[in-house]
Design a protein that fits this description.
1 helix, alpha+beta, 4-stranded antiparallel beta sheet
C-alpha cells in the first residue's frame, strides 16, 4: 500500500477509472494509467487495399 505524498493518506485504485490510483483522503491522483502505443489504421488500410487490388485482378 502506498501513501499519498500530499496528505499521507492511503492510495488505492479508483473504482470509477481503470488504471488510476488516488488518495482516498484528499482524492489526489497518485498514478495515471500507462499510455498504450497506438498502431493506427495505416497497416489495416494497406492490407485492405492490397486485398482489394488482388480481388480486382481476379475478376477482370
Amino acid at each position: 500500500m502506498q501513501e499519498c505524498h500530499r496528505c499521507g493518506g492511503r492510495v488505492e485504485s479508483d473504482p470509477e477509472h481503470v488504471g488510476v490510483e488516488r488518495c482516498m483522503a484528499c482524492w489526489e491522483v497518485a498514478a495515471l494509467p500507462a499510455e498504450r502505443p497506438c498502431p493506427g489504421y495505416r497497416p489495416t488500410l494497406n492490407s485492405a487495399l492490397r486485398t482489394l487490388e488482388s480481388f480486382r485482378v481476379l475478376h477482370r
